[in-house]
Amino acid sequence: WIAVAVQLLGLVLGTAVLYAFGTAWYCFQAGVELQKALAACVFPFIPFDLIKMAVALLVGIPVRRRLEQSRLL
């Protein structure tokens, strides 16, 4: 379970970094306030990104196990 928790943490932190830089760039380019940028660039995408994270975990774990079994990792 520790490996799953570390992978989930990586997915969440990576997504947070992407949100932060993307939102900051949008604020800069569009000249809008943070709240409006979050409403346009982050909040609509959270549900879909959570689904993608879950799929990545569900698919990634067995794929990694098989790669390790075949000594490719």
Summarize the helices and strands and which ones pair or pack.
Elements: H1 2-30, H2 34-41, H3 46-69
Notes on the protein architecture:
The protein is built from three helices and no strands. It is an all-alpha fold. Helix 1 packs across helix 2 and helix 1 (about 1-30) crosses helix 3 (about 45-70). The two termini are about 20 Å apart.
List key phrases describing it.
elongated, about 70 residues, mainly alpha
Strand-residue fraction? Answer: under 5%
Structural class by sheet pairing and helices: mainly alpha
Order of helices and strands: HHH
Number of strands: 0
Q: Helical stretch count? A: 3
Q: Tell me the distance between the termini.
A: 19 Å
Round the mean pLDDT to the nearest integer and report it: 94
Which oligomerization state do the chains in this entry correspond to? single chain
Task: Give a short summary of the structure.
This protein has helices spanning 2-30, 34-41, 46-69.
